[in-house]
Amino acid sequence: MFNYPQGYELIAGVDEVGRGPLVGAVVTAAVILDPKRPIDGLADSKKLTEKKRLALAEEIKQKALAWSLGRAEAEEIDELNILQASLLAMTRAVKSLKIQPHFVLVDGNKIPQDLDIPAQAIVKGDSLVAEISAASILAKVARDQEMEALDRQYPEYAFAQHKGYPTKLHLEKLAELGALPQHRRSFAPVRKALENSKKIREGK
């Protein structure tokens, strides 16, 4: 059971999705729930079915006092590293909220440095705190939809199946087809695919 910080009226939960994939942005969400409009079934997005996530995402958007998405693109991930890019995307999500919270609860063990609001990091927060669970659901749905859009653009990579994570299928496609502009160059499997493509071009 999580003990909420006392004396703060508006509390936002923040979470990210997409630290592990080899392609695309890391996507974050920030949510301020309305205590007068509770939402049943909030949980870590990874533990919910896709159908349940989609239904909850719509309910969160309708009932929350405020919600927003943030992101850091593949280029920013390559420039900053994935942790710093995730924290930047979290800050962007919080700053995009139409109502600014008095306190922020962040999933994980790091607090974004650029937040000018009191905050607390909570390990496994997406399972313990309703606001963070809601944020994880919105971020997961948004990123999955981006991967489905990328799949329509590049069906040969099967992004709808693996969502950009380094599965056996994705690694096979990467080796066979090479890296796309959306791939994260700083991640080892992508770097390897780029090096192999360069060797082939140079006839080595």
UniProtKB/TrEMBL annotation:
The RNase H type-2 domain sits at 9-199
Cellular location(s)? Cytoplasm
User: What are the binding positions for a divalent metal cation in this chain?
Assistant: D15, E16, D107
Per the record, the domain of life is Bacteria
Q: Name one Pfam family in it.
A: RNase_HII
Q: Does the keyword ATP-binding apply?
A: no
Cofactor: how bound = Manganese or magnesium. Binds 1 divalent metal ion per monomer in the absence of substrate. May bind a second metal ion after substrate binding.
EC supergroup of this enzyme? hydrolase
Q: Which family does it belong to?
A: Belongs to the RNase HII family.
**GO MF assignments:** manganese ion binding; RNA binding; RNA-DNA hybrid ribonuclease activity
Spell out the GO cellular component terms annotated for this protein, sorted alphabetically and separated by semicolons.
cytoplasm; ribonuclease H2 complex
Q: Does the keyword Transcription apply?
A: no
How is this protein named in the record?
Answer: Ribonuclease HII
Cofactor dependence is on: Mg(2+); Mn(2+)
SUPFAM superfamilies from the xrefs?
A: Ribonuclease H-like
